[in-house]
Specification:
The complex is a heterodimer of chains A (309) and B (445). Chain A has 309 residues and is mainly α. Chain A has two domains: 56 residues, no CATH class; 239 residues, MetI-like (MetI-like fold). In chain A, 79% of the residues lie in helices and 0% in strands. In chain A, α11 packs antiparallel against α15. Chain A is flat. Chain B is an alpha/beta fold. Chain B folds into two domains: 173 residues, Periplasmic binding protein-like II (D-Maltodextrin-Binding Protein, domain 2, 3-Layer(aba) Sandwich), CATH 3.40.190.10; 233 residues, Periplasmic binding protein-like II (D-Maltodextrin-Binding Protein, domain 2). In chain B, α7 packs across α10. Chain B starts with 7 loop residues before the first helix and ends with a helix. The relative contact order of chain B is 0.17. Classes of the chains: A mainly alpha (309), B alpha/beta (445). Chains A and B meet through α13 of A and α3, α13, α19, α20 and α21 of B.
Chain lengths: 309, 445
């Protein structure tokens, strides 16, 4: 039957049907169709809000007039804005550095635990990462509580002075970074552990034959083999840490005297609590160029190394 | 088997029913109404509000849907802002403190409701008018649930023993205040009392963080000294002798407060009092209500009474809540009917009783309910909670135009000035200059 129909159709039409079928069968087409729901979700929940946010940031305070880049220019003149920029950089860079360092060290420790007991360690060490941060930060808040700090209770019992964990700007910055490191280090641990397991054992054997000590093995074998995964995790964590909201919001709410605000918490303070949505949108968008520059450098390095390989 | 054949009789009956349907008064003939109420923290208060609303809905034949939205994590602010942006959502929305004025352009005018309500219930306090009226028009009506004042709540025993002041004599239960004593209840007396309580190991629990409890009591202090950061016309007036006086006073007071007050949030002062660590906080009676459950011995010694007075008067921090009807609401007439019903004296009294006296109606004629006289222990502890005497209920950062004041309030400009001159070790002049620069930033249109 189909052959009969095909016989009756003009040659061009048969070719067209054939090319549509071929197009539908192409791997790239199938991949695109399968990824389409995800693409639509990203367009709906990421791309559209991002462009809407750009639009909002170009309105005046009462959102009735287009003002172009006036809000950005205004922010550049504010002392508090530059303080938030500085704090966001300090917060993100130091937190990511310590997360990477701790994750790297603990990954080595877990890697060297006999296989039998390794699962338990992996499970336990992942606990901070699987608890929703708003909840775990509440627990930290109780530990740092201005009046009832459990840490201060211990310090006082051993004859030391209580520490104003959240009342002093420097201690408050330390506290928010500490909680972020506690929450995020397990992510680095699990990524680095996976990377460590993929380093061929023969490389270490060869290095050992050449007389390399543990430091030389680490520097000349482990680190080069993990370079890409370190770069990717640092980039990913930098993005997430820069955009952090819940830890600072729950622990210090940006205080004392704005000295722990990061972009997201200050944007919320301006946009929602102070009723200035355009300025809040403007602050939140400042994360984008900073992260874009970091992403370009890190991803360029990864691509270059990929090409060299 | 039942016949499904459409005969002449059935056709006529069905046609008649279809034609008459729009005119039949069903149980929901007045349409559908959706309401976003604030989720009250007092157990059972929501149930009373729901029952009252359902009674009204049954009588008015409205299909009513109520959502209780918590203020935890600013959810009620986020919901209100999102609905205003999307031009969709509830018909009636609860708007805490500053958000009626912030959403004024999205709200239905309420002058037609407020005129008869004021005639019936008495004038509204100045702070409610400041926040609820924009360009001479009411944009929302004062809601009873959530509206509060933040009077001092002090320990009777500690004040008697260490300050030599009987709070229950100064503000006796069920009777007017003792004029001779209240005349002496000034910020200077307050400072002396703070010092004595500090030395006795019961420091006053007055936060200096960036949340509302901190901003509010400092707002009352500044107002008592006549310190306006921005005047009603929007001029920056922070560089004044009054501001300097208020800051000098605050500097003296801070040395008698707990050292970590700069990190306090709205729960810290409550915990301080409930745990028996302090002699006084400035808060609605939620701390007392929780103490009744968690530390009854402390609760029995708590007394709520008006704030001290300063050179410009006795200012009490007030935070009214509002109910507004969105311009995009689909059933405005039913909304106005419900809000009128919820503002009737008998209904308001039930709401106040359900809140255990926490809620303070904004109408001056609705502050004589027996709840405040009867609540205890100690009996009458809340009698002087509703402002009735010489108190001026105000909000921090007033009388600045609300669009500016809201930013000053949210960013706690007043407590930050105090933190700078105390914790930060800066001079008063430097703190004032910093505030002036911040205020300039809040002026953008």
């Amino acid at each position: 039957m189909s052959q009969a129909v095909a016989r009756d159709l003009p040659v061009a039409a048969v070719r067209r049907v054939g090319s549509v079928k071929a197009f539908a069968r192409r791997k790239s087409t199938i991949a695109f169709v399968m990824a389409l729901p995800l693409i639509l979700t990203i367009v709906l929940l990421v791309i559209y809000p991002a462009f809407y946010s750009i639009f909002l940031s170009m309105l005046n305070k009462s959102m009735e007039r287009f003002v172009g880049f006036a809000n950005y220019v205004f922010l550049f003149k504010r002392e508090t804005f530059w303080m938030v920029v500085k704090q966001s950089v300090i917060f993100a860079v130091s937190a990511v550095f310590f997360k990477a360092l701790i994750g790297f060290c603990v990954a080595h420790f877990v890697h060297n635990v006999p296989t039998k007991g390794q699962r338990k360690w992996r499970g336990m060490l992942l606990v901070p990462w699987v608890i929703p941060p708003a909840m775990s930060t509440l627990a930290w808040l109780w530990l740092f509580d201005p009046s009832y700090s459990a840490f201060n209770w211990v310090l006082e019992r051993i004859g030391l002075d209580a520490v104003p964990w959240l009342g002093n700007p420097y201690w408050a910055r330390f506290a928010v970074i500490l909680v972020n490191v506690w929450f995020g280090a397990p992510f680095f641990l699990i990524m680095y552990l996976a990377a460590l397991k993929s380093v061929p054992e023969q490389l270490y054997e060869a290095a050992a034959i050449d007389g390399a000590n543990w430091w030389q093995k680490l520097w000349f074998v482990t680190l080069p083999m993990m370079r890409n995964i370190i770069a990717i995790t640092v980039l990913f964590s930098l993005i997430v840490t820069f955009a952090n909201f819940d830890i600072v919001r729950v622990l210090t709410n940006g205080g004392p005297v704005d000295q722990t605000h990061v972009f997201a918490t200050w944007a919320f303070k301006l946009g929602i609590e102070s009723g200035d949505i355009p300025l809040g949108a403007c602050v939140s968008l400042f994360m984008f160029p900073i992260l874009a520059v970091a992403a370009i450098f890190i991803l360029r390095g990864i691509t270059r190394r990929g090409n060299e390989a | 088997m039942t016949s499904t054949r459409l005969d002449r009789r059935r056709f006529l009956a069905a046609s008649a029913a279809a034609v008459a349907a729009p005119y039949v008064r069903t149980s929901h003939a007045a349409g559908r109404l959706t309401v976003g109420f604030w989720d009250h923290w007092v157990p059972g208060a929501n149930n009373v509000l729901t029952k009252l609303c359902n009674d009204w809905a049954a009588k008015e034949k409205v299909d009513l849907k109520i959502d209780y939205i918590t203020s935890q994590g600013n959810k009620i602010l986020l919901t209100g802002t999102a609905e205003a942006q999307a031009k969709a959502g509830h018909d009636i929305m609860t708007l805490p403190t500053w958000y009626a004025s912030a959403q004024a352009k999205n709200l239905e005018p309420m002058d037609d409701l407020m005129k008869p309500l004021i005639a019936e219930n008495g004038n509204v306090v100045a702070v409610t008018e400041y926040l609820g009226k924009q360009d001479g028009h009411w944009v929302a009506i004062p809601a009873t649930p959530g509206s509060q004042v933040k009077s001092p709540c002090g320990r009777i025993d500690v004040f008697k023993q260490h300050v030599g002041l009987d709070l229950t004599k100064m503000y006796p239960p069920g009777a007017p205040a003792d004029k001779a004593l209240t005349d002496r209840w000034t910020w200077d007396t307050f400072l002396a009392a703070a010092e004595k309580c500090f030395k006795a190991g019961y420091p006053f629990g007055l936060g200096l963080g960036e949340t509302t409890d901190s901003v509010d009591w400092v707002g009352a202090l500044f107002a008592s000294y006549g310190a306006e950061l921005v005047d009603a016309k929007g001029n920056i007036t922070v560089k004044s002798d009054a501001t300097r006086q208020a800051l000098e006073y605050a500097k003296r007071l801070v040395q008698f407060l707990p050292p970590d007050v700069f990190a306090w949030d709205d729960a810290s002062n409550n915990k301080w009092l409930i745990a028996g660590k302090g002699a006084l906080i400035m808060n609605p009676p939620s701390a007392w209500a929780v103490a009744k459950r968690d530390n009854p011995k402390v609760a029995e010694q708590l007394w709520t009474f008006p704030a001290p007075k300063g050179p410009k008067g006795r200012f009490t921090p007030g935070l009214p809540f509002f109910w507004g009807i969105w311009k995009f609401a689909s059933n405005k007439s039913a909304g106005k009917s419900l809000l009128t019903y919820l503002s009737q004296r008998a209904v308001v009294e039930q709401l106040v009783t359900a809140s255990g006296g926490y809620d303070i109606p904004s109408f001056s004629g609705l502050r004589d309910f027996k709840t405040w006289a009867e609540e205890g222990p100690p009996k009458g502890t809340l009698y002087h909670y509703p402002p009735r005497g010489d108190e001026i209920v105000s909000i921090a950062m007033s009388p600045a135009p609300t669009a500016i004041a809201m930013q000053m309030y949210a960013q706690a400009t007043n407590t930050k000035m105090i933190a700078k001159i105390t914790q930060g070790g800066e001079s008063i002049d430097k703190a004032i200059a910093w505030a002036a620069s911040e205020l300039e930033g809040f002026m953008r249109a």
